Amino acid sequence: MSVTLIATGGTIASTADAEGRVTTTLHGEDLLAAAGPLPVDVEVVDLRVPGSWNLTSELAAGIAGAARSALLGGARGVVITHGTDVVEETAWLCELLVRDVTDRGPVVLTAAMRHASEFAPDGPRNLADALAVAATPHSADRGAIVCVNGELHHARWVTKTHATGLATFESPGRGPVGEVSERGVRFTAAGPPPPPPPPADGSVVGDIPIVVSHWDVDADLVDWHVARGARGLVLQGGGAGNVNGRLVEPIERAVAAGVPVVGTTRCPQGEVVPVYGGDGGFASLHALGVMPSFGLSAGKARLALGVALAADPDPVEVRRYIEALEVRA
Ligand code: ASP
Questions:
Q1: In whole angstroms, what is the distance from residue 27 CA to residue 307 CA?
Q2: pLDDT above 90 coverage of the chain, percent
């Protein structure tokens, strides 16, 4: 059984031109050739998708769909090469859409901070590590994993923390779930419980804006998004999920109109909790029907809401889906 490599671009597949501008130029086979002796047979799928910051939820669901097809087709694991900027979102979408078949093998996403024309690029080593993880039988049943810089991070928790630094990926408050070293592939911590089953068609609803709260936020934004047909809304508040009080009335109108709303915090650690009352306190929002994101960032919360809506748009089912994402341990 072979591992499937799904190549999507990003710095790992990029080189600099004569002016020093970095763009994706390399294909899956080029990446493999640079990754040294392969620990396993590899089948390459080159997905022609735009660079990571130009993806859409629909295109990312296509990447997850390719991973799913590979596992259902008998691959022992899948490696996805990706841009670092939003690899955490694609990884999380893979967790939501593919986790139910990862008993067959893992989905391992990898990336690089140094492009292939730089001195000592990190891509080849990251890819070699990711292939080793994908080929290891004890990687199965752990869902979607990001493998970078010798560390394994679960899709649920991983985030890019430094704009340009090499050791940029962290799982704040959780830490890595494993490592790749001279001792091989080792898992050192459990991941989260699996999410609910994915929608039968593997899709995600993309029309879910993020409203970022700040002192001078324009509250009309909420009504504007609802009027133009947003299917759900994600709020990014501060601390335990509190948002500026002028957002409350429009949020109440959105919830009353049947638009599901999820609250998140800009804090990289901890979760939204219904502690504070008053204008915009998350306890007040919660009482209006705003759902907590259980530690998901705004970017990941909107994907969870999008998958919930694609699975079943009934508001009761959407709430059930989101509440099933709580991690109690
Ligand atoms: N800086 C990014 C990368 O590491 C660019 C991207 O996300 O596509 O690939």
A1: 30
A2: 97
